[in-house]
Design brief:
Pfam family, one: DUF6506
Helix content: 25-40%
Shape: globular
Radius of gyration: 13 Å
Strand order of the largest sheet: 2-3-1-4-5
Order of helices and strands: EEEHEHEH
Distance between the termini: 34 Å
Strand content: 25-35%
């Protein structure tokens, strides 16, 4: 199985902000926005990636956009946190 994890934030550039382990079997890629994420997801799919996991910043709406971009043909999930930590996350990310 080939796996990729996408993190999203204005500071990222997918051309520079990426790393892989196990000869590319697992990758992490930083993307600036959802548009870039959709493009990268399509590229990953064409490279044979089986599963894309997304940082929590994507949320359900962003995950659905990635699923649409990949035509619902590969596994897509996103990280979430427990509600008990909402205040900590709000402080950290300003939401």
């Amino acid at each position: 199985m080939k796996f990729a994890y996408l993190i999203m934030g204005a500071i990222f550039d997918s051309k520079k902000d990426k790393a892989s382990i196990h000869n590319g079997v697992s990758q992490i890629i930083g993307v600036a926005d959802i548009e870039e994420a959709c493009q990268i997801a399509k590229e990953l799919q064409s490279e044979g990636v089986d599963c894309i996991e997304l940082c929590g910043g994507f949320g359900e709406e962003g995950a659905r956009k990635i699923i649409e971009a990949t035509e619902n043909k590969i596994a897509v999930g996103f990280a979430i946190h427990l509600e008990d930590q909402n205040d900590i996350y709000k402080k950290l990310f300003g939401k």
